[in-house]
Write a structure and sequence with these properties.
Shape: globular
Strand order of the largest sheet: 1-2-3-5-4
Structural class: alpha+beta
Helix content: 10-25%
Oligomer: single chain
Bound molecules: guanosine-5'-monophosphate
Number of domains: 1
CATH architecture: 2-Layer Sandwich
Distance between the termini: 28 Å
Radius of gyration: 14 Å
Strand content: 15-25%
CATH topology: HIT family, subunit A
CATH class: Alpha Beta
Length: 116
């Protein structure tokens, strides 16, 4: 399995397509998911070109996980959610649809079913 730079997140990272950006630094971009499973559903996308967790280099993971934690805390506070789900899929049979490594941060609200 190889990395195709024409994937949609690669294009967003290069500024070729728009997004609702909530954070960006040298490591990663965080944006709202276009089809959110709940209010405040974020995607955290490392800038390094990996297809998913299976081919990501440890440096990328080491740099992005503290950001995922920071954003999880910030999203929880900003949305007033009761919990937050971290999700990440690797290859199509596992549910991956965009083939650039990303992490879902999905706020969970008590008594509210996740969408989709
Ligand atoms: P996956 O199943 O690959 O983990 O999830 C890909 C996610 O990307 C889905 O939740 C989908 O809604 C989201 N997505 C797909 N295309 C776009 C897009 O063009 N912009 C944004 N913001 N999200 C997208």
């Amino acid at each position: 399995m190889t990395y195709d730079p024409q994937n949609i997140f690669g294009r967003i990272l290069r500024g070729e397509l728009p997004c609702h950006r909530v954070h960006e630094d040298e490591t990663a971009l965080a944006m709202l998911d276009i089809f959110p499973q709940s209010r405040g559903h974020l995607l955290v996308i490392p800038k390094a070109p990996s297809r998913n967790l299976l081919d990501a280099d440890p440096e990328t993971l080491g740099a992005v996980m503290p950001l995922v934690q920071r954003l999880a805390r910030a999203v929880l506070k900003a949305t007033g959610a009761d919990g937050i789900r971290l999700a990440q899929f690797n290859e199509a049979p596992a549910g991956q649809t965009v083939f650039h490594l990303h992490f879902h941060l999905i706020p969970v609200y008590e008594g509210v079913e996740l969408g989709r």
